[in-house]
Prior knowledge:
Elements: E1 7-15, E2 21-29, E3 34-38, H1 45-52, E4 58-65, E5 68-71, E6 76-78, H2 89-96, E7 99-102, H3 116-121, H4 125-128, H5 136-148, H6 164-176, E8 182-186, H7 194-209, E9 213-217, H8 221-227, E10 230-234, E11 238-243, H9 244-247, H10 250-256, E12 263-264, E13 269-270
Parallel strand pairs: 3-9, 3-10, 7-8, 8-9
Antiparallel strand pairs: 1-2, 1-4, 4-5, 5-6, 10-11, 12-13
Helix pairs in contact: 5-6
Amino acid sequence: MTDSAVLRLDGVAFTHPGGGGVSGLDFEIAPGEAVALIGPNGAGKSTLLKGVLGLVPLTAGRMVVGRSATDAAGSARAASPGTPGPASAGDDHARNGMIGFLPQSAELDPDFPISLEQVVMQGRFRRLGFLRWPGRADREAVRLALATVGLADLAKRRFGELSGGQRQRGLLARALAGDPTLLLLDEPFNGLDQQNRDALIDTLRALKAQGVAVLVSTHDLELAKLVCDTVVLVNGTQLAFGPVAEVLTLGNVQECFDGVEVELDEHTLVVPGHEGH
């Protein structure tokens, strides 16, 4: 484990109160590194992302987000002397904007009269709190976020009038508006056409160049090869972690998708029940 890592998981398990979860997590993400999180449905990918956010309990091991550590006993403390530890490291960093999150689906009514710019401004609310109106810095952060995802010219457009791919990129801009150092993406490429897919790939590359760490859940091996440096294979537990070329072998993927027919080529992972993106 390196001192510069944005996220470190050491023997971590995240377990839902009603049972089920993911365990054996041992990996780290450095600034400017993108990690692909790959596994079948129900493997615990979304649970892992929500666990980092503090939304699913940490039940084993130790997690370090930035400089704050949380262990399985539920205690949180600073990783360096003199820095107060939060009640939950992931939840604290999600609130203060260190972590940006793009969920698999967003509960935004497309008929609600709200502009794209207003949706992206929601990403600043954790920094603003409830007692402040957005100021110049907040408006500039929204402008930059929209420019990053290539939607600056649509800022005033009603959100519901955008295409599905544009809405997805707009929600990514919302996650970026908080100026995160760690970005969590849950199946961001689902349903995107080629134009929006290419735009999202370009955005992720640009974010890496800016030093943002990225953890992206996906079934898309082309994305892993084009954007990601390393891969985590999970199916209830971590099965492999390492450089893309070393981990994404047919043998590893077949073990991960146990009992499911898998076809692996230079572009796509094809699994029955999933779209080949």
